[in-house]
């Protein structure tokens, strides 16, 4: 791995940097008139890629090491993928390993956020909600912690993945999970206003448009895309959501083989509002870094004022459930 000084220098020269494996993405297809701010002025975010297993203790150790590395490199916010806590062998094990938000695991992450002094996007926590005793089902909950370890937002996944793809393990998320009741308004963070989503939500552009209309500048899709849908759809969907909303899109992903029945595509990435991939992880665990340039975001929206050109008189108004 590169030394600290070299990492800082590279991230200054380039807004997107993959630390492990040294895959650096410097080229950005911006219109020439659209200059970015000085890199030193821009908030740095880290996107963590892991291979979760049923071993919760080992998963936390892996995630904590990446978060600590992100903090050393100067990130103000680190993103973890869906199922950062564990990926079980079956629904019964999923339910057994789940915890409430007030449990030991979230307290460990709260302490980690305090010690590292950065915000954490915990992209998909297996949550036993207040209705656990009645339902015996859980929520897939995206938790946002601030640098003091306090929960500032929770979003419970609204679109559940019940699909059968040839060549891929069937998914029946509804066997163990309850869909969330609502969207959540974007949250102000040191990197910008973040709209929370999870994995399969990416296939529903209505959600991303609603979040953008509610003020989101960054959309985040923590995920565990499979080995069949991943190569076909992952990057295409992420870039589409960025282009249509003119937001940064941050997508932390699971990678590799979790156990005999389950594998994930990986390729965590950050996409800018022009649709350019500015940071990317490849196959294995690691992290990538990107700087969030909100001045550039505003320039893109001024250049292509698509939200001013929308025709709600023809197809309805998106975003009003959040207002």
Give the arrangement of secondary structure elements.
Blueprint: H1 4-13, E1 16-18, E2 23-25, E3 44-49, H2 56-72, E4 77-80, H3 91-97, H4 104-116, E5 119-127, H5 132-135, E6 139-145, E7 151-156, E8 162-163, E9 171-172, E10 187-189, E11 192-196, H6 205-213, E12 218-220, H7 229-245, E13 248-251, E14 255-259, E15 262-265, E16 269-271, E17 277-280, E18 286-291, H8 294-303, H9 312-315
Task: Describe the model.
Residues 42-294 form the CN hydrolase domain. Keywords: Hydrolase. The protein is α+β, with helices and mostly antiparallel strands and 323 residues long. It is 28% helix and 24% strand. It has nine helices and 18 strands. It has helices at residues 4-13, 56-72, 91-97, 104-116, 132-135, 205-213, 229-245, 294-303, 312-315, and strands spanning 16-18, 23-25, 44-49, 77-80, 119-127, 139-145, 151-156, 162-163, 171-172, 187-189, 192-196, 218-220, 248-251, 255-259, 262-265, 269-271, 277-280, 286-291. The protein has an eight-stranded mixed beta sheet with strand order 2-1-18-3-4-5-6-7. α2 runs parallel beside α4 (104-116). The longest helix is centred in the first third of the chain and has 17 residues, at 56-72. The chain is globular, with a radius of gyration of 19 Å.
